[in-house]
Amino acid sequence: MPVVSTCRSLFKSKASWVGLRCVVLSRSSRRRTISSRKGDANHPVRALFTGIVEELGTVADVGTVEDGFEMTINASVALDGVKLGDSIAVNGTCLTVTRFDDNSFSVGLAPETLRRTSLGDVVPGSLVNLERSLQPTSRLGGHFVQGHVDGTGTIVSMDKEKDSLWVKVKTSADILRYIVPKGYIAVDGTSLTVVNVFDDELAFNFMLVSYTQQKIVVPLKSVGSKVNLEVDIMGKYVERLLAGYTTRPAQT
C-alpha cells in the first residue's frame, strides 16, 4: 500500500518534477555574446520539451572556442523570441544559446555531452532536429522530454511498408531496460512510440508515418548511423522508488 500511494502522488506531480535544470544564468545578462554568461544559483533556468520537432536546422559551423566546443546552426522557427541563455533541444540534447543573430544561433558543448551524444559526429551541412523549450501555455503533443540524453543507439535496419518506415535501433542493456512496448522513447529528440522490444538483440523498433518522415532527421540517416536516445523518465523514478522500498528493513 505505501508503494501504491507514493506512486499515485508521483504520477500526479509529474509536471512539477521532470523539468530539471539545464543551465544557470544571471538574470542581468543582456549582451548577445558568450562572454556575458554568469552563474547565478538563485535564478535557475529550467527546460522541458515535448519531443515534437519544430524545424530542421542546418549546422553552419562546428569547432573549438576558448576551452570548449561550439556549434552554430542556421534556423528560423527556433529563433522566434529567442534570448541569450534560452534552452533549445538539438537532436534531443538540451543546449544553451550562447549567442545568436537573425539567421542562426550558437551553442556550447561540454566534453561529457560529446561523449554521451552523437553531436560530435555532425559536420557543416548536417541537418538537426530543433525544439524550443516549453512555455507555460504550450500544448503537450508528445511526452515529457528533458533533453538529457541517456546514450546512443545504432540503426540496424530501415524497412519501408507502403508509405511508412520501420526503424530498428540497437542500444545498450542499461538503456533497453527502460524501454517497453507501446511506451515512449525520444530518438534524436523526437517523441516516438515503441512498437517492439527485442531483448535478445538489445534492440527496439518504431514506425514513422509519411508526415513524420518529412519533419525529422531519422529518415535521412542510414543503417549504421547513431541516434541519441532518452528514455521516459517515469521508469527511472519508479525503479528508484521501488528499490528503496524493497531494501527497507522489515517492520516488526
From TrEMBL:
Matches recorded under SUPFAM superfamilies: Riboflavin synthase domain-like (SSF63380)
UniProt source species: Ceratopteris richardii (Triangle waterfern)
Keywords, sorted A to Z: Repeat, Riboflavin biosynthesis, Transferase
InterPro entries tied to this protein: ATP_synth_asu-like_sf (IPR023366), Lumazine-bd (IPR001783), Lumazine-bd_dom (IPR026017), Riboflavin_synthase-like_b-brl (IPR017938)
Keyword Repeat attached: yes
Gene Ontology terms, MF aspect: riboflavin synthase activity
Protein name per UniProt: Riboflavin synthase
Domain Lumazine-binding intervals: 48-143, 144-242
PROSITE patterns tied to this protein: LUMAZINE_BIND
Sequence ranges of the Lumazine-binding repeats: 48-143, 144-242
Biological process terms in GO annotation: riboflavin biosynthetic process
Pathway: Cofactor biosynthesis; riboflavin biosynthesis; riboflavin from 2-hydroxy-3-oxobutyl phosphate and 5-amino-6-(D-ribitylamino)uracil: step 2/2
Function: Catalyzes the dismutation of two molecules of 6,7-dimethyl-8-ribityllumazine, resulting in the formation of riboflavin and 5-amino-6-(D-ribitylamino)uracil.
Keyword Protein transport: no
EC numbers on record: 2.5.1.9
